[in-house]
Amino acid sequence: REPGSKVYQQETRSLKRANLPRNMIENSMFEEEPDVVDLAKDSTFPALDPDEVVYEPRSSRLLVRGLGENELDEEEEDYESSARLLGMSFMNRSSAHRPSSSPYTRQAPPRSCSRPSARTMVVCVLFLVIVASMTMVLYFLPGCTFTRVRQISNSSAAYPNSTNGELFPWTELRLPASIRPLHYDLTLNPDLKTMTFTGHTVISMSVQHNTKRIVLHSAELNITKATFQLDDGKPSDVTVLEYKPRQQIAVKFTEELKAGQHLVLTLDYSANLSHNYDGFYNSSHTDKNGVKSVLAATQFEPLAARKAFPCFDEPAFKATFLVKISRESGYMTLSNMPKAKTTELPSGLLLDEFEKSSVNMSTYLVAFIVANFTSISENVSDTLVSVYSVPDKKEHTRFALKTASKLLQFYNNFFDKTYSLKKLDLVAIPDFLAGAMENWGLITFRETSLLVGNNSSRLEQQLVASVIAHELAHQWFGNLVTMSWWNDLWLNEGFATYMQYMSLQREFPELDTDNLFLAMRFRALAKDALNSSHPVIVKVDTAEQVLEMFDSVSYEKGASILLMLNASLPGEQFRKGIIEYLRKFSGLNTVTEDLWNSLTQVCHQSVSEMMKSWMLQKGFPLITVSRSKGQVTLTQEHFLLTADNTTRSSSLWHIPVTYVNDSCSLEPECKQLFTLKTASGTLKLPDNVKWLKLNYRNTGFYIVHYGDEGWKALIDALNQNISVLTHEDRASLIHNMFALSRLGRVTFRQVLSLLNYISNETDTAPVTEALSQLTTIYKLLDKRQELGLVARMKAYILNRFDSLICKQTWGEELSASKQKLRSALLESACSLDHPYCVQNATELYKQYLESNRTKQIPGDLQRLVFTVAARSDEGWVQVLQMYAHATYDAEKRKMLQALASTQDTRRIVWILKAVLNGETVQTQELPLVFSTVSNGFAGHLFTWNFIQENWNRLIEKFPVGSSAIQSIITSTTSQFSTQAHLDQVQGFFTSLKERGSQMRVVQEALETIRLNQCWMDRNLPAFRQWL
Ligand SMILES: [Zn+2]
Questions:
Q1: Which residues surround ligand 1, an ion (CB under 5 A)?
Q2: Domain-located, residue 542
Q3: Which of 88, 276, 291, 932 could disulfide-pair with 12, CB 3.0 to 4.6 Å?
Q4: Is residue 246, in this structure, part of any structural domain at all?
Q5: 414 and 362 both lie in a single domain
Q6: Are residues 228 and 256 in the same domain?
Q7: How far is the CA of 489 from the centre of ligand 1 (A)?
Q8: CATH number, position 331
Q9: What is the pTM of this model?
Q10: Which of helix, strand or coil describes residue 183?
Q11: What is the CA(954)–ligand 1 centre distance, in A?
């Protein structure tokens, strides 16, 4: 899935949550659970009480123990305190009715024995008392085994009540592994007038080992009839039990179902079409004649297939599907597979039947749509590629078709494995929260992620091509080979993100996605530098934690690590390893280790050893360089931003350090490699080397400090000639310098001294990086109302970039890189009231109006021109009118951002309300509106108040943990830097309790405010002195 361009915007779900308190420390608590059981992949399941075992993939948690020792200490604390906090609830969930003889039983953390504390002693004494009592019980109850007694007594205590009052026969969030679905026959009858649907689901299953229950998922479905058939026996009615907090249903049997038996469960049900953006949801659009039509579409990832049909809704339960959908004659339907036939029903409705899926697939990839779309198509090596949209927007689909066709061919070759299905549909849905979703054969998109006008700018094309490239990569990474459980989500998302940049760089170099990728890596470093970050692979045990996995670490850090790995392997080895992985696991589920093993097999060097240090520890290293003539010492430590004296972990990374020096610094052949595995290492250089630049083209996920001498040598070199380094290396120096300033390792004077060279800079990446860093500081000063400093900072920025600003043209520009540079520069300039910029923007807008909007504003300048126009009362109203009537969504979004950047408080309030109510402005745009409004001084306090007042409505539309909520919190709080705001934010989120207080993004927000506060306190005197 592609979360969207700038802000993470994803699907919304309204999950019924477990009654347990969701506590952040649950994460670490579960770290101690023993595992290393690969149930997901093995077809043979362990024989010992297997029904008690959930479908748990092998994870790498044991390996965590070898790393980050300091963190373990904290986790042990957490483990104990959380056990106290959660009491019996915790017992129920994790271990209560697992027999003590089972290898899957929770064991005490080994370290607690070596350091007996008072608490441990108490526990030991209690344990002895219990053992003594149990012995006595056993003595008086001959015939019972110890295990049996425990299991029975615990089980009955642990099982929750179903909705009908009977005990529900399962206690875990994850489904039991005893039954496996093989095939689903789905019939859906949506009624777009009443916004309801009925369904008929036939699930064929096999028994993996003896059991007396079938447990599967179902949410918000009203099951009206259920029948069950064993092997060739007669179907009979059965009672379905439901346990809503975990969205599970179950059928209990008196006789044991035996391993190897074949079962068929048939369920009839009815439900409402969802009014949010997940499950089987309804949406509508109005055409240019004002005629409104309704449609229904699906969004299942990660946990919403269960809202459309009862199913085993975990990625490792792959099965085949046959879908049938009824419709009225004015509509068409789409599903993953091509349509097989259409029959007329007695009711007069038509029933479309799709081919049975030729591949096994996970439930989250199933999709269907009922709408009145039109399409254009093209054949690409035996695959029919089509792009669908509402009829009015058909002319905007051409770029997508051309791009998808070219990329499909690229991936067919690159993966050395042809796309698995006979057709591939790309569909633009009018109401869609995520950027796009990779449903197999039926990729759904937000309209702005798929449709581009004939006069679109390169930047719009860049966005659309990126999303298509991402979703197409998923057809292999994610669909063909799928992670076993959401803890390895990066295997899907990190990979698709990496492939998106790699494929575009090769197939569409004119779109200049390299700079986009570089900026993404800088963003990933910023997130991962916080203490609230997490390892790429992390334990996932609750529904909210599943949602939270769709974050910067899975996508952006995942992609960055893959780039680093590829850059450190010679030739085509990375690609060969990937081909081997896809060949070996085609149609199956995997864990991260499987990928490393395939690469190791091809590369003949242990990839796994290196990658573990990047996957299982949060954060990344800071490398400090110190040089004594020919001897260079590199030391590594955890780059952790802290506002207090939080001790850094002693984590070490296995770093493929690359470097170039003044004798050869531009071509790839200049690059030298040094592997740093220990805390420090030395390398030799000729004495006459003047300077050294590490992390060639910034392909490594680390930051470098060159020391005073090293920085000075680099700055001197740049001041003489900026072309001694690649533009990525120059951007990397700027990025690293600002990061070190946040860490307190360099002074702000050193930052300014590096930026002196920037007057001569003309390349996009270094300019946009410097601008974005300076703008961040400017906004912090602005929000603190440090008026004197705000003015000086503004003057500094405009002065540094003045000649470059004045060099920019205002006509059509073809190069994507130049469009990016121009829009970034001019947007900053106009927002800082640069007279030349404001004047030109105003003039362009005037010409646009006078030509009755026939004289186009270049796409990359539209947002800026509309924003300047919307500053005046008259202009704002004009832009609002244009917004209401515009049909081209990319343009519409820019008008919306212009409207949201107003400093008029009445209008700010109006727009916040409009987007929340979905009137005039679609609710899917809420994260974008919030981030735009928060940027302005007037707006940032309003959004903060608005969030507090409307929290319940917000989490109704975007569930706790979702990316939309993450984005809203981040954009609203990230510019606070005072104690008063810190107290407010802390107070508000603490008061939410189960309504969001435990989200990781809350910790991140609090940490960011503390860091801002600390950085401001430290640097305000320096600003006064040096700006
Ligand atoms: Zn994705």
A1: 1, 493, 496
A2: no
A3: 276
A4: yes
A5: no
A6: yes
A7: 9
A8: 2.60.40.1730
A9: 0.85
A10: strand
A11: 24
